[in-house]
Design a protein that fits this description.
It contains 17 helices and 21 strands. With 498 residues, the protein is of the alpha/beta class.
Length: 498
């Protein structure tokens, strides 16, 4: 809970992989403290076989940067580490350097709730290369998982067709911090509430919950349990029907609902957590309507995901709300987004111009994009996104604005001329201080809702979605090809010398 535990906010500095610290010492010892780097965070494929990804976690980057300090006890821990070959892992002079270290970076990112696509810069980090390196792991930890959860939630909310979705996943989440991240990201992705009380306290998310099967089992009869709960929570009464038999549960709920009416109260809803949800919800709806209880809502849970919910509605299930737990919290069937953090440009001390660089790899799929990247989104007259273009202003030809070369296929060219263009990356941190540009999570949630509304239905669909156009500005595309060619030539010369 590194970002949420207010008692030890500085723990974020050690929330990293060891190699980040060993590289930092290497840069320091090589006299590269004044070398600057430009890094990009990106992913190579949309999750869940979908056509889009919801950016999330970027709103916490400022907190990460501002709390990034090496406390005395952290320095002592690093001092205690031994190298595998013997002796201290870190030099005393480097530990002294860390003791006074602060993250002086500029960070641009896609705002939470906005849509992002494969190969695009989700985050751009600029500044001293040591600072860039030290923040890598913690930053990826923030944006990878939360973007995955927000995307999963947006898909579930899409399937729910305007009906409320609540996050029930805390007990199946990956630890306390994972549960908090799920609650936060799912709310941004469109969930209406969470069962996680701590997340409600920290983030201001609406919380929801009533009773479990154990409540019913603790009473001699189911109807006794229903009556006791209605008496205790007349303004928040949702009765769980499937502890024993749903058919009998419906009848007992009807009795209690009538008793509540006589007392001037109303049964809010019933929940079904097992069995044939389509069949049982229809049965419940019919019986409540027959008894003049049409205001009683029906909620469903039990290992739900976007496909199950879509199927339930296809069967005509009269379900009003959904509690989604395990498959939301674990992002079943895809456990990770696969976002990476790559150096795309650097400049040594005293240099004014960035030197673009790229990873070639023997796998073309893993070839990166060079340069200090920004991202421009083009929209049609209705506000619908029609394509994104990655740009490095140093290599941009203004006469080519609106043209783009597909990020994976140089033979595919896009023409977005005449469409409205806007920058997608916004400054989250400048000079090591947060800008407040992301806004509140409520604003991020609304941003997600708007983004999903304007996204083309062909890109939103679950099965075989239309690929969204992502391209490189022609000058950047030429640079990428040039760097790749030069690196291959160097490799060829080296092989001949060998």
């Amino acid at each position: 809970m590194s970002l949420t535990d207010r008692t030890v906010p500085t723990d974020v500095a050690l929330n990293t992989d060891l190699y980040e610290l060993t590289m930092a010492q290497g840069f320091w010892e090589a006299g590269m403290t004044d070398t600057h780097g430009a890094f990009t965070v990106f992913f190579r494929e949309n999750p869940f076989g979908g056509g889009y990804t919801i950016a999330c976690g970027t709103g916490q980057i400022a907190d990460l940067v501002e709390n990034f300090k090496f406390a005395p006890d952290s320095i002592e821990y690093l001092r205690s580490l031994e190298a595998p070959g013997g002796g201290p892992m870190f030099k005393e002079e480097f530990l002294d350097y860390l003791a006074g270290f602060s993250i002086d970076l500029d960070i641009y990112a896609v705002q939470e709730g906005d849509i992002v696509f494969p190969r695009e810069p989700l985050v751009r980090v600029q500044g001293p290369i040591i600072a860039c390196q030290l923040i890598e792991t913690a930053l990826l930890n923030l944006v990878n998982f939360q973007s995955l959860v927000a995307t999963k939630t947006a898909r579930v909310v899409q399937a729910a067709e305007g009906h409320a979705v609540s996050d029930f996943g805390l007990r199946r989440a990956q630890g306390p911090d994972g549960g908090l991240a799920v609650a936060r990201a799912s709310y941004i992705g469109g969930a209406s509430s969470t069962s996680n009380v701590l997340a409600g306290k920290i983030y201001g998310i609406p919380v929801f919950g009533t009773h479990a099967h154990s409540w019913v089992m603790a009473f001699p009869k189911e109807i006794d349990a229903f009556r006791a709960f209605a008496k205790s929570f007349p303004k928040n009464c949702v009765l769980l029907l499937d502890t024993y038999d749903v058919v009998q549960g419906i009848e007992n709920a009807i009795v209690v609902a009538k008793e509540m009416e006589a007392a001037g109260e109303r049964l809010a809803a019933v929940r079904i957590d097992s069995g044939d949800l389509a069949k049982l919800s229809k049965m419940a709806r019919a019986r409540f309507d027959e008894e003049g209880l049409d205001y009683v809502k029906i909620s469903a849970s039990n290992d739900l995901d976007e496909y199950t919910i879509q199927s339930l509605f296809a069967q005509g299930a009269p379900i009003d709300s959904f509690g989604v737990g395990t498959k939301l919290a674990t992002c079943d069937p895809q456990p990770s987004l696969g976002g990476v953090y790559k150096l795309s440009a650097y400049k040594s001390a005293g240099q004014s111009q960035w030197q673009p660089t790229m990873k070639l790899s023997e796998m073309a799929y893993k070839r990166t994009i060079p340069g200090v990247q920004r991202l421009v989104r083009y929209r049609d007259a209705a506000g619908v996104p029609i394509g994104d273009v990655i740009i490095d202003d140093e290599y941009r030809d203004p006469s080519q604005d609106g043209f783009a070369v597909n990020v994976l296929d140089a033979d595919t060219v896009y023409d977005f001329r005449g469409a409205e263009a806007s920058d997608v990356l916004v400054p989250m941190v400048l000079g090591g201080k947060g800008t407040g540009e992301n806004g509140t999570i409520a604003q991020a949630r609304q941003r997600c809702r708007d983004a999903m509304m304007y996204l083309d239905a062909a890109t939103r669909r679950f099965l075989n979605p239309q690929l969204y156009p992502v391209g490189l500005e022609p000058g950047l595309s030429s640079l990428r090809s040039q760097l790749a060619r030069e690196e291959r030539e160097r490799a060829s010369h080296s092989e001949r010398r060998i």
